[in-house]
Design goal:
The chain is of the alpha/beta class and about 290 residues long. Helix content is about 55%, strand content about 15%. It contains 14 helices and nine strands. It has helices at about 15-25, 35-45, 55, 70-75, 85, 100-115, 125-130, 145-155, 170-195, 200-210, 215-225, 235-255, 260-270, 285-289, and strands spanning about 5-10, 25-30, 50, 60-65, 90-95, 115-120, 125, 135-140, 155-165. The N and C termini lie far apart (about 60 Å).
């Protein structure tokens, strides 16, 4: 029989990630707050639907999840209808939510008391990475559970690494978001400068992408940005949530993030422009208006 797993949370990331697990031959049961979406997924992938997180998790060897924030994560794990209530000792919970390191460590401890393994495993690569099975997954937790989970995570990942103990995955994702914030602001300023200077922006960035300024953001976003198209990735609302986590952790550990704090406020300006659901490259819209 195929290994039985579940996936909790079918947003723009979770929906295709769960699909890759099913395509890999796993028997997948899904849960989503909107049951109709879970039923749609099950119809497309010959899976099953749990009406609660606990129902979806019951009898499963590994429970995967990808939800919105710390509170969403607590709501699907602990409490009477949470997954932990139904999971057996020796099973595992793998969380792909971008959340705080504190909640990862909190849930790791609760899971351990129940004999359940817990891995924080946030991802990078956006919706396209999830759909194409090319995500980068950064994990925090114990060696043996990671070794067991890694081959399954490979169904939707191009790279999966254990970064350290519980919380290390979330801390690594914070580094990712800090770097992206500065990169996108720099790209926005460079693109705006090129436009104002009357340059052919495609020619400019085709050249620059072969040099020291090259980045994923440059290669994948400069053309859509130059057209004023901001519907291609991670939403500004979610980026502000992530940057808030980064800034809070930086304050706790004494790290300085002056550029990140500034870009966070720039994203607040984008929200004020009505760009809550625009992708993160919409920083350009703020300086081009």
């Amino acid at each position: 029989m195929a290994e039985q797993v579940s996936f909790l949370g079918l947003g723009v990331m979770g929906y295709p990630m769960a699909g890759h697990l099913a395509a890999a031959g796993l028997d997948v049961t899904v849960y989503n707050r909107t049951t109709a979406k879970a039923e749609k997924w099950a119809g497309e992938h010959s899976g099953s639907v749990g009406k609660t997180p606990a129902q979806a998790a019951k009898g499963k060897s590994i429970v995967f999840a990808c939800v919105g924030n710390d509170d969403d994560l607590r709501s699907i794990t602990i409490g009477k209808e949470g997954a932990f209530e139904a999971m057996e000792p020796g099973t595992m919970f793998v969380d792909h939510t971008t959340a705080s390191a504190n909640v990862a460590r909190e849930l790791y401890g609760i899971a351990k008391d129940k004999g359940i393994d817990f891995i924080d495993a946030p991802v990078s690569g956006g919706q396209a990475g999830a759909e194409n099975g090319k995500l980068t997954v950064m994990c925090g937790g114990d060696d043996a559970p990671f070794a067991k989970a890694s081959p399954l995570i490979d169904a939707f990942a191009q790279r999966c690494e254990l970064m350290g103990p519980s919380g290390a995955g979330q801390l690594t994702k914070m580094v990712n978001q800090i770097c992206i914030a500065g990169l996108v602001q720099g790209l926005s300023e460079g693109l705006n400068f090129a436009q104002k200077a009357g340059l052919d922006t495609d020619a400019v960035f085709n050249v620059l992408s072969k040099g020291a300024a090259q980045s994923w953001q440059m290669e994948n976003r400069h053309q859509t940005m130059s057209k004023g198209e901001f519907e291609h990735g991670f939403a500004v609302d979610w980026m502000r949530k992530d940057l808030g986590i980064c800034l809070e952790m930086a304050n706790n550990i004494g790290a300085q993030l002056p550029v990140t704090a500034l870009v966070d406020q720039f994203y607040a300006d984008v929200q004020a422009m009505g760009g809550n659901r625009w992708d993160t490259s919409s920083l350009l819209a703020r300086i081009s208006k």
